[in-house]
Amino acid sequence: MATGRHRIDPRTRRRVAITVATATAVAVLLVAGGAALLSRWPFGCGETRYLRVAATVSMAPVLQEAAREFNDDPPTYGGVCVYAQVNEAQSATVLNGLAGAAGTDPAVPDVWIPESSGWVELARTSERGAEVLSTSPVPLATSPIVVAAPASADGLPDPERADWEMVLPDALEPDRDLRLVDPNRGVSGMAAVHAARDLLGDDDAADVALTEFVRDAQPRAAVTSDIDLRSVYGAEPDPSGPLTVVPEQSVWQYNAGAYPAGRTPGGALAAHYPDGLFQLDFPYVRASTDPVKVRATDDFYALLRTERYTQALLAAGFRTPEGEPGAALRSAGGLAEDLPFPATGLPGSDLVDALFDWNQLAMPTRALILADVSEQTGEPLSDSDSRSRLEIAVDAARLGLRLFPDDTDMGLWLFADGVDADDGHSEVVELGPLRDDDPGTERDDRRERLLDAADGIAVEGGGSRLYDTLLDGYEEATENFHAGRVNSLIVLTAGRDGGSSDITGDELVEELSERFDPQRPVTLFIIAFGDQGERSDLERIADATSGTVYVTDDASEIGDIFVNAISRRLCVPDCSN
């Protein structure tokens, strides 16, 4: 998939001469949609400029064909000849360039056709975007966001009576994997997250359910703006195949076999149209303030609105800006001719909310585990469960290690008087990636080391030194804070300090409150096992870091506790118990 094959600085002024530079420019334009220049190379042009058009991948072929026609008889503006050059560009890449994100191409196109006006709203929040982007972009076409599935699949709703609930975990029987574009890359992914949030609500239970949705979808999320359905379903979809959130045009392309490399068997996928239907609108956006480029932008748009290219977009599986299908969609299998529900765009504010939810829940974790091995951990969990609190804590640690993916940073300390008479804690496994496969270094499977360490944990005895250890662990985590990760301490404890520490609970709360930085938050997630006479103290300690306390005497609750803890990322730095 091309992503901006050739870029020519529009400020470059090429005088007509038979030189190596001229020959190179001809080759560039041949590739980028200017083959017709061979017959009309600009002899007599006082100056030549290039109208750089960045188009979303699915629409680029039609625009490149239009560029060839535009360049066959290039317009001249006061002696300046302008040639259109269309490149495929992911909307997120252009947005990042406008925002000046590190590592992105600082060049901004003269015309931008993203997949959705929502991208334009987001881009205009940047200083550069507000300066150069037109305020009233007009759509070239539309395509509703649908849920694709094998047409022969069982257990799915009527395609024209679907609901977004079908994308939630365990909503269908049989259950199916979900594929979507990473919301940071495409609006179809943002739409799925927004729909899930809208369906679930915004209370604590909804946060937990949304956490399960993101954890289910994130490992398979596509990192490009478009999903090639051939890579998901092959030539003949298996009836047990996954659900995929994509634009309707992608389903048409698959079913029609309309790929540049040739045809594939068609009519194998069904598009499900959820109630609460969203659509892409492919706006035509002027992104230059150069007077010559502005005039050329208007002329290129006028060409695109001629019958030839409006029909070309319909023939490529898009709908009109008003949502009407062309003959290609009408004759395709697996698609609805008339939309069963009104389709709307997603405003920028909704996209931002969806991105926040996704990024908070999908963000990699950096967690130091503090495991209590004091004499209190040897006590039974409850009257109905004779296993020791430490046994349950170790089981919780093992479960947590299975729940977190390889890109998690994790380490382990044990704490109690019996571990270290001076500090009350010792480092068993240093903080680092669960799995480190960096080239040129010896592979380090920290997950295995942590599991081995968990198998060897035993009661060491003495007081817990809980408060001292929490302060030392917090200092360690804040000094080694990693941006772009959720930094936290996970504390597995019997929940009692009992005066064993050098500091009091009140002093610990004061210290943590002073050290907590909302811009670089490190949070405490405390899981206390068994009856807790000191629960209120633990809650005050966690609150000082926007953290959470979970108290349980039921070992079966551990999995739910971890999911709840992850869902609390959505309220940091303003959480309270």
UniProtKB/TrEMBL annotation:
The chain crosses the membrane at residues 16-38. Pfam families: SBP_bac_11 (PF13531), VWA (PF00092). Signal peptide: none annotated. It comes from Allonocardiopsis opalescens. The keyword Cell division does not apply. SMART domains: VWA. PROSITE patterns: VWFA. InterPro entries: VWF_A, vWFA_dom_sf. This is von Willebrand factor type A domain-containing protein. Keywords: Membrane, Transmembrane, Transmembrane helix. Residues 366-566 form the VWFA domain. The keyword Plastid does not apply. It comes from the Bacteria. Coiled coil: none annotated.
